[in-house]
Specification:
mainly alpha; Rossmann fold; 2 domains; three-stranded parallel β-sheet
């Protein structure tokens, strides 16, 4: 299964110091050109820039159908290209956090997972000892916003919440 990522999950995992979790879980991560530009070029010196540029397992792929990107004009360019790549690769998994992007992807029948979902998978596979500290670091280090009900649900699923 092809795994495609938008910018923010790459940045989030780099800021957590957990960038290689993506490789451990999915082997290869595919990003569109616009995501590469956002993270590596525009984001030079920021979390994720060096990690994405240096990771042999992060590959770039150009979108084939620019009309899908154009139809997703309400999204940022990287987000629109990431959703488009997922549409062009049926059965792929898209790592995406932003609400508008997630809604667009769902409407296009794209399989999605967010940063919290990836962390939950990592916890279940024994790659993380605990999820709560990772969520706290996300909120502190990258101003990642998590609704209280979602936090409680994810922590419960990880076996760390009240049952």
């Amino acid at each position: 299964m092809k795994v495609i990522s938008n910018s923010s999950p790459l940045i989030n995992f780099a800021a957590l110091g957990r960038f290689t979790l993506l490789h451990e879980l999915y082997r290869t991560i595919v990003i569109p050109d616009a995501v590469y530009h956002e993270v590596v070029v525009a984001g030079q010196g920021q979390p994720g820039a060096a990690e994405v540029e240096q990771a042999y397992w992060v590959t770039r792929e150009a979108v084939i159908n620019p009309s899908i990107v154009a139809a997703l004009h309400e999204l940022g360019r990287g987000e629109a290209e990431a959703v488009t790549l997922a549409v062009e690769n049926p059965g792929s998994l898209l790592i995406l956090d932003e609400r508008r992007g997630r809604l667009a992807a769902i409407n296009l029948n794209v399989n999605i997972i967010g940063t919290l979902g990836v962390l939950l998978v990592a916890k279940r596979k024994g790659l993380l000892a605990a999820l709560a500290p990772e969520i706290e670091k996300l909120e502190t280090n990258v101003a990642f916003r998590v609704r209280a009900d979602l936090r409680a649900k994810v922590l419960q699923e990880a076996g760390e919440g009240e049952g």
